[in-house]
Design goal:
By secondary structure, the protein is α+β, with helices and mostly antiparallel strands. 48% of the residues lie in helices and 14% in strands.
């Protein structure tokens, strides 16, 4: 399809674009100015953002920031030639978010204000339908494989400790809601959900009489319990699951102030996904009946979060969780929300 455009220059050097076919077809088209900043994009950018680029493509971004690092020098070299008036066709290898690498045809076409004045370059990434379809299928296959593996592990765990298995499912669902509210993208939400689903998997090696003990744990028993993050990490570290899932499993009992375990890390050394699962784990544990104590009330749970805000728990996560709790009258309502989302 013809990609003709009517372009005029504004007083401050920005562009007015009259769309004549710019948004149609399978190609991703980006208008890049002489300052190397993105001036305009077609609608396909939104569709393929996660597949093609190492960052979000948006107006005002530097084009080099959204091209995979290993391709930048070559890309900028071609762009420089196009800004001098050359029409260029080349191929580029783009690294996807999931580690796959794919080749794409790239066309660089100068945009002329008049016969002598170049004001930018159209950069067109041309993914063939067949290649793009295959890429999408591989992405979906990988995602489904993650879930299948995690569910298989959970089904195995349910045979031994159904209560903890259900707890993990609730934490995963809760974490996914919090992640969405905090603006996580699809890949982060997948890792967050899987990390929540498997965070207590290390309790497989904790004796059931300790897990179901109707009284408080002795210091020795608590030390055995504290081994479960390391055990869980060792269970999944060599699987195909994203590395972030292992980090969540290993670190979900760490606290901002360094008072947690197994390593006593603190602050920014704890990733945001871990901070979310930590709070969700605490909330579900407090709401749940234990053989040695009754379930806590919503007021008690909210009090714990407020007291631990910016001390043990991340402020942003606490605020999102308090908002979720406020929207639900009871824990029963919260559970209904979790499993309808």
């Amino acid at each position: 399809m013809e990609q003709s455009k009517s372009i005029s220059k504004c007083d401050k050097g920005s562009f007015i674009i009259q769309d004549h076919g710019f948004c149609y077809g399978p190609q991703v088209v980006i208008l890049v100015g002489k300052d190397h900043k993105v001036k305009a994009v077609n609608s396909n950018v939104r569709k393929y953002n996660q597949l093609l680029f190492s960052g979000n493509v948006k107006e005002g971004a530097f084009i080099q920031d959204i091209i995979a690092r290993e391709c930048r020098d070559t890309f900028l070299e071609k762009l420089g030639k196009a800004l001098k008036g050359q029409d260029i066709h080349s191929s580029i290898r783009l690294k996807m978010e999931n580690g796959y690498q794919r080749w794409f045809d790239v066309y660089y076409k100068p945009v002329m204000l008049d016969e002598k004045t170049i004001i930018g370059v159209y950069v067109t990434f041309w993914p063939l339908y067949q290649n793009l379809q295959r890429l999408c299928e591989q992405e979906k296959y990988t995602e489904d494989s993650y879930y299948d593996l995690a569910r298989a592990i959970i089904r195995t765990y349910e045979c031994r400790d159904p209560n903890t298995a259900v707890h993990q499912k609730r934490v995963a669902a809760m974490a996914k809601i919090i992640g969405r509210r905090m603006g996580f993208d699809k890949d982060r939400l997948i890792s967050l959900y899987l990390g929540g689903l498997l965070h207590d998997i290390g309790k497989l090696k904790v004796p059931t009489d300790i897990l179901a003990k109707p009284s408080s744990l002795t210091p020795l028993e608590f030390e055995l319990i504290k081994e479960h993050p390391v055990i869980g990490y060792n269970v999944i570290k060599d699987t195909m699951l994203p590395k972030l899932v292992g980090e969540i499993v290993y670190c979900h009992h760490e606290r901002l102030d360094g008072s947690g375990y197994p390593d006593g890390v603190s602050g920014d050394n704890i990733c945001q996904e871990v901070k979310i699962v930590t709070v969700c784990d605490v909330v579900d544990a407090m709401f749940s009946f234990r053989p040695y104590r009754p379930a806590r009330t919503k007021d008690e749970v909210m009090e714990e979060l407020n007291e631990g805000r910016d001390i043990k728990y991340d402020t942003q996560v606490v605020d999102a969780m308090l908002e979720l709790l406020t929207e639900n009258v009871s824990f029963h309502d919260l559970r209904e929300t979790l499993f309808s989302s």
